[in-house]
Specification:
alpha/beta, five-stranded antiparallel β-sheet, three-stranded mixed β-sheet, 13 helices, 12 strands, disordered N terminus
Length: 398
């Protein structure tokens, strides 16, 4: 029960975006299960890794050091042909993807979701706990009368009905009031990651300090005028519909691009991978695991055992590393197409992109973003847009 807090502080969220920025398969809507390009020079599990960083990757399990920012690149415009050979990438065919209609129900669901995010937290003092309430509690867990490690917390905020705790825990809090002290009886799941507690009955002593309810604002003309600067609910609904239609058009276009990009990847031959870029992503993945472990109040190894059922090192080698090879392979093909087409990112475009990233992800400054994530994330993201636009110009609709 080693902690259950799922809150991600702002500085944590900033660090968790890096892998998402780097994964270009999300841009092209390509399945990321295995490298699709042909690979030559079979070494180290089928892929040759260019030793540009001085040795094999060893995970940093200390949780103290941030990965070195990726500045020096093994891959350049001049040597890209050493890493990848392109197949056909122009004149490829794709099937037009229909754009899904936006219904009134879709609009209403979207609005309700946003209203719930604007809910006001109200302290409840005149009733018992109900499903959906947030309760502030102390709890202490006992197994055979002895308090067990990780089973105690004070001032913990728990949303009833969230399923954050083990089955049977949250429903037994319903009906109790502020100040109540009581025991609840539950059993840990048979596959619980702590062997001594797996399948075992335990008792939790609970004390309720606060009951908090989320009050969702009513959708009225006055509300949208005050908070959104829109004249009426109908105008708000129309703007939401327009936004959703644009998003669905973008989604359809992304699927079309994905069809083309998958063909490009299938036709490319990757000769080798740059180790410094692989290790950078592995380090960032390790940092992400450490941050999630911190959020759950657990050790990284325990987190991996609970969520993926295997030790950290095994998960890295069997899942994380293969996925990263896919990402780096896509980057190599992307850069090869860019070189072939004479596409690059100007200083002005880079600066505009950097400013947009800083704004979109809530960084305090450009230096903060660059220190945390490096320039390559921006360069690849901007380059991906240019490359896909160019190849779509020379593709054929079936």
């Amino acid at each position: 029960m080693n902690g259950f807090n799922c809150y991600a502080p702002q500085d944590v969220r900033k660090r968790l975006i890096t892998l998402a920025i780097f994964v270009l398969c999300a841009v092209f809507v390509v399945a990321c299960t295995a490298p699709s390009a042909e690979v030559e020079n079979e070494e180290e599990n089928g892929q040759e890794i260019v030793d540009s960083n001085g040795g094999a990757y060893t995970p940093d399990l200390s949780g103290e050091d941030s990965p070195e920012v990726l500045t020096a690149q093994a891959v350049t415009d001049d040597n890209i042909a050493e890493f990848v050979t392109l197949g056909q990438y122009t004149g490829l065919e794709f099937t037009r993807v229909p754009v899904l209609d936006v219904t009134d129900e879709d609009v209403l669901n979207f609005i309700n979701s946003h209203l719930s995010q604007a809910a006001e937290m109200v302290n409840i003092t005149d009733r018992a706990v109900e499903n959906g309430d947030i309760v502030v509690i102390d709890f202490e867990g006992f197994h055979d009368g002895v308090a067990f490690e990780g089973g105690t917390a004070h001032g913990f905020e728990l949303t009833i009905g969230s399923g954050m705790f083990i089955p049977g825990f949250e429903p037994q809090i319903i009906g109790h009031e502020i100040g109540d002290e009581f025991d609840i009886h539950v059993s840990f799941p048979p596959d619980y990651f702590v062997p001594e507690l797996a399948g075992e009955p335990v008792v939790f002593r609970i004390k309720i300090h606060e009951i908090i309810s989320e009050v969702v604002p009513e959708l009225t003309d006055e509300m949208v005028q005050e908070y959104l600067g829109i004249d009426s609910v109908e105008e708000y609904k129309a703007s939401v519909r327009e936004q959703m239609e644009a998003e669905r058009e973008h989604a359809a276009a992304s699927q079309e691009r994905g069809q083309i990009w998958e063909q490009i990847m299938d036709g490319a031959t990757i000769h080798k991978y740059p180790e410094n870029e692989i290790n950078f992503r592995l380090d960032m993945a390790m940092q992400e695991f450490e941050l999630y472990a911190m959020m759950y109040g657990m050790e990284v190894d325990d987190l991996m055992e609970m969520f993926v059922g295997m030790p950290l090192e095994e998960f890295i080698e069997t899942s994380v590393r293969p996925s990263i090879l896919v990402e780096v392979g896509q980057d190599l093909v992307l850069r090869a197409v860019a070189v072939q087409e004479g596409l690059s990112i100007t200083d002005e475009e880079f600066q505009e992109g950097l400013e947009q990233f800083v704004e979109d992800f809530g960084f305090e400054s450009e230096d903060e973003f660059l220190e945390m994530h490096g320039a390559l994330a921006i360069e690849l993201s901007l380059l991906a847009n240019k490359v896909i636009e160019r190849i779509m110009e020379h593709s054929v609709v079936l």
